[in-house]
Amino acid sequence: MMSGRTRTLHVGVVALASVMMAGVYAQQPVQQSQTSAGSDNSKSSLPDVQTVIRGNFVQRLGRFYWADWHGKLPAGPTPARRAFDAPLDSPPYPSGDWSYGGSPTIGVPDTTMYPLMTALKMENHRTKIYGWAKGTYNQSTSHDSNYPLTFASSPNTARLHQVVTFIERLPDTVQNTHFDWGYHITALYYGVDYRFTTTKGYLSGQLLSDGRTYGYDPLMEYADLYFPVKDGLNIRVGRFLSLPGLDSPLAPNNYTMTRSLVYTAAPVTETGAVATLKLNKQWLVQLGMSAGHDVAPWSSDHKPSLIACVNYSTATNHDNVYICANGINDGKYAYDNVQQYDAVWMHKFNAKWHMATEAWVMYERDVPNIANDVTNPPPPESGTLGAVCAPGMLRCFAPEYAVVNYLNREISPSLTVGFRSDLLNDKKGQRTGTATKYTENTLYVNRYFGSTFLMQSDLRFDHSWDKRGYNNGKARNQLVWGVSLVYRY
Length: 489
Description:
This protein is mainly β. It has 7 helices and 17 strands. A hairpin with a 4-residue loop joins strand 11 (339-348) and strand 12. The chain is globular, with a radius of gyration of 23 Å. The two termini are 41 Å apart.
């Protein structure tokens, strides 16, 4: 059996190399989205939008993709922005700016051009309808489960991970003279990935009661209120993604196909309000209150929880530090009620190299003992894990810490490679079910075709140090190769 899986993984390594070679030898020029790049000179050498993208809905949609994949999307002049110049290229990276959660990037214009909006002849509208579909396939030395590897947890199988449609209006945060507003609605978020984003109280019975493989999650619904205070104040109200972190549940917003161990154990969404105040180009502060991690305000587990963050960029914008205290309350056991202290540091070495590092410490108090060494232990709540406590204890303090580093190299405007190293110490097993230290190392390659089709491939080795943490507790080691395809519309 092992030899067969080893041969299969060898094929995966060859495929990974093939993607890299294809990116090097089959480059297609990539044109940035309309108004996001280009000058008057570059614009004059390209046909105008009506020449390239015309006809009925189907024709306009097809011609958008053709123009995008051949680097012929019309480009307008670079729009004004009040923020620093973007330190990175996007694509091929998920974002050109150092990111922070809970707010649009203040001082940065909305320049993205979406295929669906162009096909509808609504490319200049403030309200945007867009989305993507993502599927993956992986080959693994495990046969029961890849967990705690997430977003590809089923071994040796293909999955539809996400079919997503968002309706969104971004506030104009480049101007700083008057009030503006925006909103975000999840019209569709369907696939196996709903299992990793479910919030108690938001259609959570699909997972917590029924255990469905595929499901729908109304991932984000919020309003943005923007005020001309200092360099810009945005107040977000509703359900939104948890503020800190390098990884995201949204498929196009990640360096890799799989997620880090740091992300596996961290909370995903909050419901509440958060204010983001940009003091100047270098400093930004955030303060908010939520109902707690991954719980709706009407859930029995809701608790008023503090969110407080600070973001700092150096004068060159080659370094950015983002520090958050996230979901802080009494810390007593409830659905995903971890107390999180998170720090992210991003550094640009030069035009081609940058790295990103995240570390957090989390804990929860009075977690039920699941060590099977006490009589009548309190049962963990559905959808949560207990802790491996000291003998005789009914409940105990459950801490964990984690750190991850991404090192990225831009080969071309459509090809990147990188390496990720990751450590999670789940000291009481309260986040993964096994009290052990985990490490993973991943070599990854990302190949963009235009700005709308993304191929990602990972070759990843995981190890659990103290106990067998992989393949449902049967293995210490796990080797996985996988590929994902993300198609944007």
